[in-house]
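Hi F.,

I've been meaning to write this up properly since the lab meeting, where we talked about keeping a consistent format for the predictions we share between groups. The idea is simple: the sequence comes first, exactly as it goes in, then the structure tokens exactly as they come out, then a line or two of notes. No screenshots and no reformatting. I'm using this chain as the first example so we have something concrete to point to.
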Amino acid sequence: MPILSLARLDCVFFDFDGVIADSVDAKVHAFGELYRPFGEDVRAAVEAYQRAVPGETRYEKIPKFHRELLGVTLSAEDVASWCARLGDLVLDVVVESPLLPDVIDVLEELRSVGIPSHVVSGTPHDELAIILVRKRLGHYFRSVEGAPRRKEPIVEKLLDTYRLDPARCLFVGDAMTDYRCAAACSIPFLGRADPLDSPFPPGTWVVERLGQAFPVKRPDLRRAA
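Output, unedited:
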């Protein structure tokens, strides 16, 4: 399995849920709880969609769920209210979710060699900023960007602001929304997923843990023994 040459990287964009934090299941459960009052069938349909399309923002999903499952068209104010209710369910469980393997090692290595990292997530921006502070991760990232802005314009703006060559960047994600963002911005992509159950097209570089792609320094366990 290849290891990235950091000398060829000027920047790394990370999705958050499912890439930095092992929080995908927590968000699935939170979406289900939000819609539980409407019945078990609705809850199950919401959870199934959240598992299938994890990278789509709640500002897109909630109006869709109400329209297609409940026959209700939400106003902009209603969407904001429902998104806030979801945020109340999500915040603490995401903060409490463990980091995925190798994440700190990778972030430390990127920081040590001066390669800036950015978080680009479908989580609402203000909520994401709180999560990173509470998880003590904020110092690893040059910027943290989230919904309601979509990922493509966020990345395009960062490429322009920092005058980055897309070919010398990397987008690390766990969902097709991340893959499509990378493709639209002409950025190489690394998928964080089970290679035997990957959501990405054949030929996509996929790893189960980031240390399989990034060079990380691990303790010599034999010496420690």
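Notes:
The domain at 6-22+99-224 is CATH 3.40.50.1000 (Rossmann fold).
The two ends are 28 Å apart (CA to CA).

If this format works for you, I'll send the rest the same way.

G.
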